[in-house]
Amino acid sequence: MSENAITRRSFLAGSAGVAALAAAGGYMSFGAWEQACADEPETDQGSWSAYTMCNACSSKCGYKAYVKNGRLSKLIASEHDASAQGKICARGYGYPAIVYSEDRLTDPLKKNDKGEFEAISWEQAFQEIGDKVKAIIDENGPEALALVQDPRPNGAFYTKRFLDALGSPNYYTHGAACNLSKASGYAEVIGAGDFSADTANTKMIMYIGRSVADAIKPAHLQGLQKAHENGAKVVMVDPRCNNSTVFADEWLPINPGTDLAFILAMSHVLIRDGIYDKAYAAENVVGFDEFAAGVADCTPAWAEGICGISAADIERLAVEFSQAAPAACIDAGWRGGFGNQYANSGETARAIAVFNTLLGCWNQKGGALFTSGVSAGKLDEEKFPPVPKVEGKKAGSAEYPLASAGMGVNVYAASLAKEGKMKGMFFYNSNMVAGYSNPAYLQECLEALDLCVVVDIQMSETALCADYVLPECSYLERLEVPAFNGGLIPSVSLRDKVLDVIHPNTKPCDEIFKGLAEACGVGEYFPFTIEELADAQLKTVGLSLDALREVGTVEFPEKAFVYGNTPKWKTPSGKIQFTSEKCAAAGYTAAPTWVAPAVMPAGGNQFRMITGKQAIHSHTMTANCKPLMAITEDYDLTRIWMNADRAAQLGIADGDEVEVSNELHTGRCRVKVTQRMNPTAIFLPPAYGCTSEQQHTAYGVGLRSTDYTTYQLETGYGSTMAHEILVTVKKVGA
Fold first, then answer.
1. Which of 469, 460, 410 is nearest to 436 (CA)?
2. pLDDT digits (tens, 9 = 90+) for 572-599
3. What is the DSSP annotation of 266-303?
4. At what angle do helices 153-166 and 509-519 cross, to 10 degrees?
5. Cβ contacts of residue 730 below 8 Å, gap of 6+?
6. CA-CA-CA-CA torsion sign (693, 695, 696, 700)
7. Which residues are paired to 286 by β-bridges?
8. Are strands 576-577 and 285-286 parallel, antiparallel or unpaired?
């Protein structure tokens, strides 16, 4: 390990609150970080500071980084950053250690005829990749190429521009393995893929399968804390009593995959008793009567038999929502409950959007908001030539017509390689093989490609499948294009270069994709530097790169959100749609009604496996980070959670080693026995089960949920249905 690394000892020494953090979520203080670095020796290498953004998850929290004697010494979160609001989570403090990891990729790699990687020059890598891309396009057309990226500022701009320049429509985010169903379901009702809960001002809020104390944004947790302090009614609906429940009034341990029945039953009560916002619905909704007829039989008693929440509680909660409205809503959620998890996730999202509409809470104080935004304006076309519009439709758009066009169904694109229809794929900041669906299946898909190129900082499971691996410098070693942020007060933030490039043969994203474009014959669309691009974008909103470098984040108070304004519903009818022709054409009812999960556990020693977030990890991205994995080790955080009553029936005690099996995989781990778990399911913590031996910290630690996952996609929406997993659990040696 580099002498510059943030060590396990120094990180933990400065983290007196780590036990509470790991157990209850939350974020660490600047003082903990400063203490951890207080004993660093003095040198004469120089000191400086720069504004940047975290890269441990997709929230990109802004902070100011201080370099002392050539090494990162402390971080101070930006008070104005919409995600951070003056705080950074444990991941944000621990993840910088990845910069100095012994496992960093340092040179371009090519897989030789023996299946082994050998270092090559950038010139050779670009030339060979460019030749292969040209050959694929000449023989099969640009639609035989695809690219998958996990959005970051530079990645979102450069990867799409590169693929557009090649003429391929097959641009994908990680959405099918994260929030595709959530975003797509909302879009069918309200014409937007997301909204914000005005948590700090709410009178009642419900979270479904989401723990803001574990992820993703410190600002969300601060909002929840304010709601709790203000006396708001906070309800957690989750099979697991997650770490946010410390702020909740009640926890409902719902049966996994049945949130849809619960929401439909609450909607039934609002309509049956006439306690919804009738005037709002009459003015803004189409399809109300059809939805009302569809939920006429979705009584609380009916839902109780499905979701395990008592009819009395369903009745009571619906009434409490109506009394708190319009300063009330069901939170938008993210991945955990219905982002991509079940056969009914998209319909669950539709039902939530309908329920919030019945409350009349859109853009009301304490309700659900479509906040303001700001974006870069039009750039000089001579300096930044526009890329021709791509013809053709994204692979999977016909098969999954409800999938958000901006995200697409990435794993479906990969599956086409087995049919010979997809010839080449690029991956940026994406570990599809380990994190998206069944790894064995996805590995077969990528190995069937004529060309697979991975851009990453370490050897992921996806990189192991590649023909070429291109090493990017870390997020602290590069400048990126500005991040334009929505919010109550929209803003723009900068990820600036903090550290000198540590491994001289690594490159930033912008240089990598510019080099690829030139080699592929489309370099004319990249005749600019990252500095020129960033400065030009900022000048369209009255700023400059130099000015933003001085402050990190600039807010636009003149564009601040105004409560009570009527949203523009970007739907076919221009109104909120309780019915959808697209959903009906895709095999669903026009208005959301009950759709059962694909599988249900039979009892005995069979359970549904669910997963989620821990406050210290973001899936596979952070697992190979020593300070964060040290917390995992010290607090035994790889254990599965099992309901105490079910464990007693199976003769399993807390701390026992158990075998978790299904037809795809068998693995062993220890068990946490607790009453904080629905009896029909086990909870498997995320981020673990790494199978890349070149990630020395993460390799072989814990189990990986995707190993137990069948490759299957949600009808119409295309999500990976990541919780449609049944496993058996038995005590080792029993």
1. 410
2. 999 999 999 999 999 999 999 999 999 9
3. HHHHHHHTT-S-HHHHHHHEESHHHHHHHTTT--HHHH
4. 10
5. 605, 650, 658, 659, 661
6. negative
7. 577
8. parallel
Question: Could you count the other beta carbons within 10 Å of the beta carbon of residue 323?
Answer: 12
Q: Which two tokens stand for residue 143?
A: 């639609």
User: Does the pLDDT of residue 38 top 60, yes or no?
Assistant: no
* pLDDT value of position 734: 79
Query: What 3-state class would DSSP assign to 377?
Result: coil
Please state, in angstroms and rounded to a whole number, the distance separating the CA atoms of residues 572 and 584: 14
- Residue 444 · residue 467 · CB < 8 Å: no
Say if CB 479 and CB 498 are below 8 A apart: no
d(CA 29, CA 75): 10
**CB 467 within 8 Å of CB 120:** no
Check: pTM over 0.90? Answer yes or no.
yes
Is 245 in a helix, a strand, or coil?
helix
* Distance from C-alpha of 451 to C-alpha of 24, rounded to nearest angstrom: 45
Spell out the residues 6+ positions from residue 227 whose beta carbon is closer than 8 angstroms to its own.
199, 200, 201, 202, 205, 234, 247
Q: What's the rounded Cα separation, in Å, for the pair 509 and 154?
A: 7
d(CA 730, CA 398): 43
Omega cis (within 30) before 326: yes
pLDDT tens-digit profile of 651-668? Answer: 999 999 999 999 999 999
DSSP 614-670: BTTB-GGGSTT-HHHHHHHHHTTTTPEEEEHHHHHHTT--TT-EEEEE-SS-EEEEE
Q: Evaluate whether 347 touches 185 at the Cβ level (below 8 Å).
A: yes
Structure-token pair, residue 34:
């400063």
Alpha-carbon distance of 591 to 266, in angstroms, equals 16
Q: Are strands 666-674 and 468-471 parallel, antiparallel or unpaired?
A: unpaired
428 φψ region: left (φ > 0), alpha (ψ -120 to 50), beta (else)? beta
